[in-house]
Structure formats: structure tokens, C-alpha cells
Amino acid sequence: MATNQKTPKKVIPIINDNRKDGEVSLYEAHNKIYPRTTSGYFTNWRWITLWITQIVFYGVPWLELGQRQAVLLDIDTHRFYIFGLILYPQDLIYLAVILIIAALALFLFTAVAGRLWCGFSCPQTVYTKIFLWIESKVEGDRAARIKLDNANLSINKIFKKLLKHFIWISFSMWTGFTFLGYFTPIRDLTQSIIQISLGPWETFWICFYGFATYGNAGFLREQVCKYMCPYARFQSAMFDKDTLIVTYDEERGEPRSGRSRKVDAKEKGLGDCVDCSFCVQVCPVGIDIRDGLQYECISCGLCVDACDSVMDKMEYPRGLIKFSTINGASNHWTNYQIIKNVLRPRVLIYSAILLTLCIGFAVSLSLRESFKVDVIRDRGVMSRLTSEGNIENVYRLQITNVTEKPQKYHISVSGIEGITISSNNEFSVDAASERMVVVSLQLPDEVTSSGYHPVKFEIESLSNDEEVTEQSTFYIPR
């Protein structure tokens, strides 16, 4: 079993004529990584998750529900449309709960199986894989790409590089356009592009998100995962000896040595590792898993597929590199024993909290009222005496209809004996709209003492019999 300590890398001095003799760089020179293609169980799952995430991302903005876009975060109108759900700024609590659920889910998955999110669903990983696939289709496999980069400038090299970057930029701009389609109706956005009437802000955000995709997936790639992503730094706080991670069986694999399939490894005193370095060549972040667990590892499992393919060719048992736990590898546990210990109290507590939050969130949404009311006292005139000798207070009620059908509401008031509504008490509000209405309350003079007295507004929907109650005060001058 490999230890958690990574073998120190050699610091490569960088020649610089401006430095004094004997002076070396404190930073390691960066070498471009050329990931090798492979096939297998985890490779197939990466492609499945890639297709699912991209179909959802690029397809959802084009879905329609009724006469509107099914998913639209409309900042201009302060409304978030999520299929049949309409959220307003007052519903910020739902966003907070969603973020808490996402954080707990990340903690749970990390405690169970490490950085599965990074390896299979993270946008950086997904888009890097797409860009690498485009690169391989244009420039060839790993060996061809290395040869092309090292070759002298030629027409063929210029053509392939320009074609690759043209496809990258086109795909990135399409990604930026789709991203903006979640905030601006995508069909209107399409018409604006066709008519060359795109606004400055729309142009900025399409270019900004497109440039970010192009830079991160095309150039930075694994450096985002290794140096920029904070998750790589604090993930160790969520790992323990029963977390599933990619492990190399050092006891079985060492001493490693190249050999033909006809060589009897046991007779020669060799381990099963043939030192082919395929596990390193397929790694998207360029690490050697045989050096032990490293924070750069994104748990994509490609090294497992690569090693298993070599073991099959050598007619050795699979599993020299596999997903296991530190305890499982050191104690030679079976898969059943490993899974049994993975389901430890920490994981069960995370699961219980996550399930409770999800159920509470779903129940809260199902019981959510179809309209909202805010009562605001008219600060211009606190109180006044009418010609009939009544004391009058004026209120402004903001009624928000969160359904997609017009609604009619009836307003009544209680709390002080003899109080009445002297203005109109029935109002209509359009679908998914809000309306500010003025309501006047009157009370006969000398009915009660001066000062502030609590009153209660009861607003009833005449369409579905729902009722909302809001508190306020009625002021009687001294």
C-alpha cells in the first residue's frame, strides 16, 4: 500500500542569464501534459456524465412551458422561472437552502469516495475533456500531438493549430451564448444576434464566459485543478482511512520492472507492475499514482482503466490500481468489507441531515402560498379626520401573484371593534405580476384611546381560497 506522502519532485533549474552563478529557481518548470486516450469502465462513465451534463446545460434554455422559457433567471423583472415554479427576491431563503444542500452533498460524496465530483462532473474537468477530444481529432493521438508541437513551423502545423483554435473559440462562444440564455430569453437573444442588434452587456457576457471557457479548458487545464481550485486544498479535511480513493497496491506491484509476457515475475522476484507508465500517460493532471495519494488526484479512475488493460495483456489479475480505502488496502479487505466500513457513522449522519433538508425543502415548496402580501403604512399622512368625523389611516398593500394565472383577491380587516375599509376591498392581479393597491381604514372617533393599536389584514384569494394574514397598526392622534 502506498503511503500518503508524495515522492518529492526534482526541482529543475531554469537557465537565466540575469541570475548569478549557482542560483536556482524555487519553482518547478511546467511541462505540457499530453493525456493518452484509454477505454474501460471509468472512461465510459466519464463520457456518460459528460453527455448528461452537456445535454442538460445546452438543452434546458430551449425548453418552453406555456408561453415562456421553462428555466429563466430574469434579473430585469426580478423573477426566477424554474419550470412551474416562480421565485422572487423574497424567496432568497430557497436559494440559501439549495446551496446548503449542495455543500452537504459535496461533503457526503467526498467522505464516501473522494473527489468524484472533480473527476466526473466538474465543469472544468468536463470542458477540458471536450477540448482534448477536439484536439485529438484535429492533431491526432498523444504521440502525434507531441511530434507536432516539437516540429518546426510548417503549413501543416499552422493549418492544424488554426483549425483547432477556430473550433475551440466557436465552441466557447456557443457556451457563452448558452450561459447568457439562462438570464436573457434565448430566442430573443438569437434574434438579436441574427439581426446584429446585440446590446453591449449581452456582448460582454457572451465574450467573457466564452473567453473563460477557452482559457481554462484550452490552456490552463490541469493547472486550475492543481493550483487554483480551493477544493483541492481542503479536501483532506474530509478524507479518512475509510474514504474510497484511487490506490496502488505497492505490496503486489513492487519491485516494478519491464518484462515480456513470457517472463515469470515470481521466479524473477518482480512485482506485477511492468513500469509501462500508462497510468501516468492517461492522467489528466499528470501525476504518478504509484507515488501515493496526492492532492492533485481528481479520482477520475483513468489510471485504473489503463492499468487493467495492461494487466489483461500480461494475463495478470486486475486491481493493481483500483478504488479502495487505506484500511481496506492495508488489511486486504474484500469489497464487501470495504463498502461496509465506508458506511460509517460520519457518512450516515451526513446522509440523515441531507435527507432531512431535502424533504423539508420539498415540503416547503409544496406548501408555498400562491401569493404574497406586504403592508406599508402611508408615511405621508399618519392619520386624518374625515368630514364624517371618522379617523382614517391609509395603507399600501403590495400583492404579488406567484402563479401563472390572473387572480382576484378580497381584503378584510379586524383587530379593533368598529374598524371598516372605506376604499375598494377587491383587486385583480395579473399572472406572475405584482400590484400596489391603496386601502383606507376608518374608525369612529372616540371609539378607543389614542396611540397605536394593532390591526390585522386578511387577504383571501377568490380563486383557490388561500388566505394570507399580515399585521399592522392603526394610529389615533392624541
How would you concisely characterize the structure shown here?
The chain is 42% helix and 19% strand. It is α+β, with helices and mostly antiparallel strands and 478 residues long.
Low-confidence stretches: 1-17
Residues in helix, %: 40-55%
Q: Biggest sheet: strands, sense, closure?
A: 5 strands, antiparallel
* Overall pLDDT confidence: 89
Beta-strand content estimate: 15-25%
* Overall strand count: 16
Question: What is the molecular shape?
Answer: elongated
Q: Classify the secondary structure makeup into a structural class.
A: alpha+beta
Query: How many alpha or pi helices?
Result: 17
Indicate how many domains the architecture comprises.
2
Distance between the termini: 85 Å
Q: What's the alpha carbon Rg, rounded to whole Å? A: 32 Å
